[in-house]
Amino acid sequence: MDVSVVVPIFDEQDNLRPLIDELDAVLGPTGKSYEILCVDDGSRDGSRKVLREIARERPHVTLLFFRRNSGQTAAFVAG
Predict the structure, then answer these.
(1) pTM of the predicted model as reported, rounded to 2 decimal places
(2) Average pLDDT over the chain, rounded to whole?
C-alpha cells in the first residue's frame, strides 16, 4: 500500500459520499495503491449505514467503528 488516508467521522452521513468521491478523484490518477480508512467515532446519525454501503461498493475503503465518541485523536490513533 502506497498511501493510507485515515478519516475520523462523527455524524457526517450527508458528507461521506462526496468526501470519498473527492478522495478517489485525487488519489486514483496518481497510479499509487491507496486505502481509505474511515473511523466512525460513535456516530448517532446514519453514518454507519452509509459507510457500509460505500465499503461494499469500493473495496479500498476500510471501516472501523467505535461504540461511543472517543474523540478525533483516538480515531487517528486507531487508524
Answers:
(1) 0.91
(2) 95
